[in-house]
Amino acid sequence: MSKSPAELLKKFAQARGTSLNARTSDLELRFENSGIGVEVTVPFDVLEWGIECTELSGRARLRWWTDYEGYDDTPREDPTRLTNSDIQRIDGGLLEREIRLTRCPPSFLSKAFRLESRYDLEWKIDGEWAVALL
Length: 134
What we know:
Blueprint: H1 5-12, E1 19-22, E2 26-33, E3 36-43, E4 48-55, E5 61-67, H2 77-96, E6 99-103, H3 108-112, E7 119-125, E8 128-131
Antiparallel strand pairs: 1-2, 2-3, 3-4, 4-5, 6-7, 7-8
Helix pairs in contact: 1-2
């Protein structure tokens, strides 16, 4: 049987410069990289996870959540594998690669409703910047 997403997150807490905070309903992994504070949250009982990235200067912030369960009759093992795969890819990449937050161009809706500026999280792979969260 595969590990739970929370158990997988504990593995990343062994990396230097990370801290793990166990709360009532979730685990939160924190670390800094490239002048950005990163918080990854994984609930214990729901197949979802979230990430919040904040430039240490306070200039930019990104919040992003995804979930995997409850949309169809897919067996629970399949979304668990997908959740674990995403956490492995994201957390491993954010710990190992140079990262940055870049401002997205404003959309019609963000202008019309005066929404906050939106940022993308990017990481450098083989010298090129790529969006980390899709």
